[in-house]
Structure prediction request, 407 residues.
Amino acid sequence: MAQWLSLFNTCRNYKYALSKLKLAQCSRSAVSYRPHTALIVPCKGLDNDFDQNILSLYKLDYDNYELFFVTESTQDPAYQRLQTLKRDQASQSQARNIHILTAGQSTTCSQKLHNLLHAYSHIPDQAEVLAFADSDICVRSDWLCQLVWPLRKARIGATSGYRWFVPIDRHWASLALSAVNAKVAQMLGNTRFMQAWGGSMAIRRDVFDHIGLKEIWSRALSDDYTLTYAVKKYRYKMLFVPSCLVASHLSTTWKDLFEFCRRQLIITRVSAAGTWWFGLACSLMSILGPWGALGLTLASIANHSHGYQWGVSFPWWPIWLFFTVSFFFSQTVQAWVRQAMIQKLLPENTEAMKHARLADIRFFWVWSFVLTGTILASAFGHTICWRGIRYRLLGPTEVTILTQRPK
Prediction:
């Protein structure tokens, strides 16, 4: 039953994503809600395709926004590159102003949140909406418009897209991380379990102030989990915007994959324990279901096991074989559905995702072991290393800094 519920949920989210995408395409030329928006982009180092990502934020089809790039210091490689891009490209952007800020080292919260709060202290009084993007994403020209549009409704507290890893090489670790992330992305839809993702999210300024997010962020590690927590606590709705799902170009190794996944999952376990347990249960089922049924099939054949009902003897192996096939069939269809979804949402990346798409559909059963292994690895410990800084998570909204990067 569980595999069919998972398949149903995947198909329902696929339908939701395509219906919202169609609505977004129909309304692109008619969107009238364009409040003054401060788009804040924290930067650390030069991500893959850094220039392309930053320039996509310059080229937004939105005539009422300001860009705030913020690094820790002028020594960050991103700082000088941002200055060069501003000098060469600012005149071609619709952004009202482009700011490049330095926040200094954090002492009470994660460096990312410290950067975000520093940028927040510089936004103009007329800014009505705060939008956030990571420097490793590449967005379409209508991304900001689609992200902000739902906020016209008072009951919508915040909106969010999500990332889709697009490998820039054929390394198996890159293909694996893309597939593992895809398994998470397929769960996003119009549900009360929706969580924000900090690389593509927006919130009205009045809501930001009302829920006390500035105070929460000043001592926390995670931007998105704490935002989700506060938004829902004050009974606003957290809305997933499928058209704001963005490409993040990826090249990784097995070591970096496990470090990344374990870090993200420890944050999830501490900040949103229910989500972590749900992910663990689903991952275990994706392994125990098909392989357990296959084991019982082989055992029934080897032992010539039979059952008896109404005086009739029948072998058990066809029944277990049916369950084996149904499990594998369900997971194959889910892989196909999520890959079909992303081709609709990110058609410009279809060719680049060809190998990742085939790897996901053909080897979904392998990626289940990878995901389950990383979830189990995150079951212990409260210490993580993020961008060269070691943190200890004390709770969903509290963190302590153990070691800093050398200046």
